[in-house]
Amino acid sequence: MSSATVEPAARGGRLDPLGVVLAVTGLAGLLLPFALARANRLVAGTAESLVAALPPGAAAATLAVLAAALGLALPRTGPWLRLAAGVAGLAALALAIGLVPQHLVAEGDRLARVGPGAGFWLLVLVFAMLLADATARLSLSPAARLGLLAAAILAVAGLFASGHFDGLSILREYANRAPAFWREGAQHIRLAVGSLAAAAIVGLPLGIACARRPGLRAAVLPVLNIVQTVPSMAMYGLMMVPLALLAAHVPLAAALGIRGIGAAPALIALFLYSLLPIAANTAIGIAGVPTSVLEAADGMGMTPRQRLFRVELPLALPVILAGIRIVLVQNIGLVTIAALIGGGGFGTFVFQGIGQAATDLVLLGALPTIALAFVGAVLLDALIDALERTPPP
Fold first, then answer.
1. Which residues contact 93 (CB under 8 A, 6 or more apart)?
2. Is residue 172 part of a domain?
3. Residue 41: which residues within 8 A CB-CB, separation 6 or more?
4. Rounded distance, CA 89 to CA 185, Å?
5. What parts of the sequence cross the membrane (predicted)?
């Protein structure tokens, strides 16, 4: 093989494949509109590039930081450098998007709306993926991951508290609906966590029983699998008629708030969706305990109850928590659809926005839902990792 052939191969070997994809995607993001400016919340917007959307000095600084961060993604650099590039890129985007309304909206104009464009969202995705790639390569400890998450939450909360984002259209929508936002947020969490707790109460014993009795497992888990295949809107619809009849014929049920629409059908549907991951993971975790460990527990004179709580459940806990993590993220997303039947939650803003053709109102419901799912997943991932790293007693 000639030296001319070897040199390009060597050069190509110094490039990170994912970094190349992210850099090319980031370049596309820089070419797409960075912001959308509209005369009011309903009319079509005017696309503005990053250079046009920001004051000259801010635009130049932002472009320099983004270009440098994308450049650091290209070579096979260390994970800490990639982590710094991801953080720098996201920080530059956050600071830049908050400056756009000040540059594009005339002072005192309360009707104009300015929001992020496709280029902004694509760049956020690029740098978020770069950040996720760096943290995965670093194999951070659970405490370090939680610290990174806490730092990110504090930084974003600080920007919100400072009023940096107040000019953005989504914050204008929030200002008009602040009490409703927190009320629906609390309802969203209640539905997601409440259905998870109810499913855990039923699913854990059911999973243990399935691990003990293969016949029961063969009968129960396929039924729960079928439940998972039912679309969420269809499931909510299936709950409405029987619950409406129950409320009409049982006064106590109506007094407890059980009716065909509202939180009750949403809670029951979410409970049914939650059973499979919890029961299946519990059965797998219990069945996966090594036989030698069980024999050692029997040799120590443990009763079946003691063996379950002192040996089997602690060893199966990481697998069980993995199922709970799936349920939590799943339920946070599915609660959004529950707003269609009066269940409340952030989906209320999503469907109001769709009905009014107001994208900012849709984002007011969608972005907190994504944030809740992300935070919940990171917290449970860190807990699972901590348990897996802890040596058995």
1. 62, 66, 120, 123, 124, 127
2. no
3. 111, 113, 169, 172, 173, 358, 360, 361
4. 29
5. 20-37, 49-74, 80-100, 120-140, 146-171, 191-214, 234-258, 309-328, 335-355, 361-384
* Sequence-ordered strand ranges (E) for 80-230: 113-116
Element spanning 47, H or E: strand 46-48
Residues 104, 107, 111: CA angle, nearest 5 degrees: 75
What are the residue ranges in the chain where pLDDT is below 50?
1-12
Tens of pLDDT, residues 254-270: 777 777 788 888 899 99
> How far apart, in whole angstroms, are the C-alpha atoms of residue 347 and residue 365?
6
Q: Give the domain range for residue 289.
A: 178-389
Residue 266 in any domain: the answer is yes
- C-alpha distances out from residue 126 to 33, 74, 87, 254, 296, Å: 16, 13, 11, 50, 51
How far apart are the C-alpha atoms of 323 and 267, rounded to whole Å? 19
The identity of residue 250, as a single letter, is V
End-to-end CA gap in the chain:
57
DSSP 276-317: HHHHHHHHHHHHTS-HHHHHHHHHTT--HHHHIIIIIHHHHH
- Residue 54 CA from chain centroid, whole number: 30
Reference 96, options 168, 188, 144, 32; nearest CA is: 168
What backbone torsions phi and psi does residue 130 show, to the nearest 5 degrees? -65, -40
Angle (nearest 5°) at CA 329 between 324 and 330: 95
